[in-house]
Amino acid sequence: MNVLLDYLPEFRDGFLGTLAITASSALLALVLGVVIAGFRVSPVPPLRAFGTAWVTVLRNTPLTLLFLVAFFVVPQVLFRGASPYVLATLALGFYTSSFVCEAVRSGINTVPLGQAEAARSIGMTFSQTLREIVLPQATRTVLAPLSSIFIALTKNSAIAGAFGYGELFNVSKLLNDKGYAIAWIFLWTALAYLVITFAISGAFRVLERRMGVVR
């Protein structure tokens, strides 16, 4: 208990840092994932090829390697002076977007093909059909897998601590270096992660109840 009370500001900052990186990465992954899922079901072959390549490369690349690229390559090529927060968000968001894409694409495939054909028959474009007809119905079926994906993202955010971003794992590492018992440090860190993951799970359960349909 002493380690928590003595370093409460550090634990608080680490907790808020984890919340911030989780929220920003989840938003980036959600936006990219939906867009890439649209590419994967697009009637335009180059877009389908791009979407397939995006998912194949990112899902089969170790997340640690993506962090190495984000922190040591991206600042040299694109964003000079970018903060660890921005770089960690890019690595986590891009990686998670490939999983979001596949979850959304699976949801799209559950919508009867006849609805898309009916929309096209009345003159709606592909993007209009996807946005107004298909995605609203697919959302109901993708909530459960998205919950698991974002919980995994929360736990994956610990890698950012190894690259100097101030989140829970980084705080745990600093306190361990000061000689505090690692078991107590990990206990409080694990409880903090549980609070975040339970909150995500609860939020998605509420969404599922509100958006659920009688089958």
Automatic annotation (TrEMBL):
InterPro entries: AA_ABC_transptr_permease_3TM, ArtM/GltK/GlnP/TcyL/YhdX-like, MetI-like, MetI-like_sf. It is found in: Cell membrane. Residues 15-204 form the ABC transmembrane type-1 domain. Its main location: membrane. Pfam families: BPD_transp_1. It is a multi-pass membrane protein. The chain crosses the membrane at residues 15-39, 60-79, 85-104, 142-165, 185-207. Keywords: Amino-acid transport, Cell membrane, Membrane, Transmembrane, Transmembrane helix, Transport. Belongs to the binding-protein-dependent transport system permease family. HisMQ subfamily. NCBIfam families: HEQRo_perm_3TM. This is Amino acid ABC transporter permease. It comes from Streptomyces mooreae.
